[in-house]
Amino acid sequence: ATGPGESAAYRLRNIIAPGFSCIMHVHSAVVEVSFEELVGLMDKKTGKRMVDKQGKTIKPRCAKEKEVVFAKLQLSSPLCIESFDQFPQLGRFTLRDEGKTIAVGIILKTSNQLFAPG
After folding, report:
1. What is the pLDDT of residues 58-115, one digit of tens each?
2. How far apart are CA 5 and CA 99, in angstroms?
3. Beta bridge partners of 92
4. Residue 25 has what pLDDT?
5. Residue 96: predicted pLDDT
6. How far apart are CA 14 and CA 29, in angstroms?
7. 85 in Cβ contact with 21 (< 8 Å)
8. Nearest CA to 39 among 14, 16, 22, 11?
9. CA of 29: how far to CAs of 25, 66, 73, 93, in Å?
10. What is the CA radius of gyration of the chain?
11. What pLDDT shows up at residue 35?
């Protein structure tokens, strides 16, 4: 799938904001990826997305160390990936920058799932 894929990333070691680029390792593939949008934060106590008083999802401006975020990522080239729910082995990834792992996560949706009819 190419294009944005919604993902959850955790164990952040840098401050990450939209436009940040790094290297994604997923199964045996390596591809450059950039953060298109941070779409939500996870409440560590409940395991659900954080919402404000009006019930809207809280969209962070940046992700800090030890936060769990939901993000849309843009891949630099086509890559065969699956969501974690459908195929766990192809749904896990790590993000690396300057030779260090900065985040690990799971793929929640791919662009094919985002635009599929139904």
Report:
1. 888 988 887 888 999 999 988 888 888 998 888 899 999 988 888 889 998 887 654 4
2. 23
3. 106
4. 94
5. 93
6. 23
7. no
8. 16
9. 6, 26, 16, 10
10. 14
11. 92
Query: How is residue 56 written in tokens?
Result: 């809207």
- Residue where the block lists tokens 């900065």: 102
The residues pairing with 6 across neighbouring beta strands, listed in sequence order, are 72
Question: Which tens digit of pLDDT belongs to each residue from 14-32?
Answer: 678 999 999 999 988 999 9
Residue in the block written with tokens 């139904």: 118
37-59 per-position pLDDT tens digit: 999 888 888 888 888 888 888 88
pTM of the model: 0.78
State the DSSP string of the chain.
Answer: --SEEEEEEES--S-B-TT-EEEEEETTEEEEEEEEEEEEEB-TTTSSB-B-TTSPBP--SSB-TT--EEEEEEESS------TTT-GGGSEEEEEETTEEEEEEEE---HHHHH---
CB contact at 8 A, 10 and 27: no
